[in-house]
Structure to design on (280 residues):
């Protein structure tokens, strides 16, 4: 796999010429791009919107107060067109200061070559931390556009389009189910969400004392992963509940095998308590 860094101006040409096979960056899905550039958008992986960042010293609280301001903007993007539409619709005047790359744009703003920096809202917050004095700048509340972002491929290769599209859908579904690297979900490496066994239709179990009798059998029927070391098991599977001997119907046998599980190879006696898993 080869990654090619591209500017906003050159990205579509690189895709059309075959220099790259898929364009995956902050590219907005628009009618004009989808119908006239010979491209297919495979889906939307992020919904963004354009905003404005200014210096606090300007005492500006709204984008409607930016009449006469100079704006640093990146060329070849929907940002450039959105600014023109917004200022024209609100009868405001502005002076565009255009640059070819995002780095050049934010550096010019930080150097004081313009009053306002405009791009997608997520980009504003990301770029603000790069400024010499981030706390001296603020993002205005207005969002002036809708920016659905996603991967793009060329027209004419339906098989490749299907691969990119359904890979994208699979990644979204995996995030919903908290599917990730092995054992990563219980180490806090993924966002909080349903446990993997919930995604497989198993119930989420609250603390044992809060369980109603009807739910206990469902929770206790979850078979613990004994093949993992205890330190590798999910936190909610390291907790044990002690079951007394009167729950056994005969030595070495469980009264209800679907409700209780024991570690393979272990023995059970009537006079010895049985440790069973009670997911938290």
């Amino acid at each position: 796999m080869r990654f090619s860094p591209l500017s906003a101006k050159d990205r579509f040409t690189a895709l059309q010429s075959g220099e790259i096979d898929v364009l995956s960056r902050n590219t907005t899905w628009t009618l004009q791009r989808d119908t006239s550039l010979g491209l297919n958008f495979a889906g939307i992986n992020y919904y963004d919107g354009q905003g404005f960042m200014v210096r606090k010293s300007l005492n500006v609280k709204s984008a409607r107060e930016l009449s006469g301001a100079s704006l640093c903007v990146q060329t070849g993007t929907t940002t450039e067109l959105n600014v023109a539409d917004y200022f024209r619709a609100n009868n405001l005047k502005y002076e565009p200061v255009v640059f070819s790359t995002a780095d050049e744009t934010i550096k010019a703003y930080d150097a004081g070559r313009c009053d306002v920096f405009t791009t997608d809202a997520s980009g504003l917050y990301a770029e603000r931390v790069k400024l010499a004095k981030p706390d001296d700048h603020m993002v205005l509340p207005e969002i002036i556009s809708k920016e659905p972002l996603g991967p793009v491929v060329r027209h004419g290769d339906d098989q490749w389009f299907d691969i990119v599209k359904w890979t994208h859908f699979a990644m979204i579904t995996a995030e919903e189910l908290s599917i990730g690297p092995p054992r990563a979900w219980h180490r806090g490496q993924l966002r909080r969400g349903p446990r993997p066994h919930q995604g497989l239709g198993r119930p989420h179990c609250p603390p044992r004392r809060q369980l109603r009798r009807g739910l206990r059998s469902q929770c206790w029927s979850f078979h613990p992963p004994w093949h993992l070391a205890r330190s590798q098991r999910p936190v909610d599977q390291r907790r044990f509940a002690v079951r007394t001997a009167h729950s056994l119907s005969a030595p070495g046998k469980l009264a209800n095998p679907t409700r209780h599980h024991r570690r393979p190879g272990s023995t059970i006696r009537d006079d010895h308590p049985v440790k069973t898993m009670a997911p938290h």
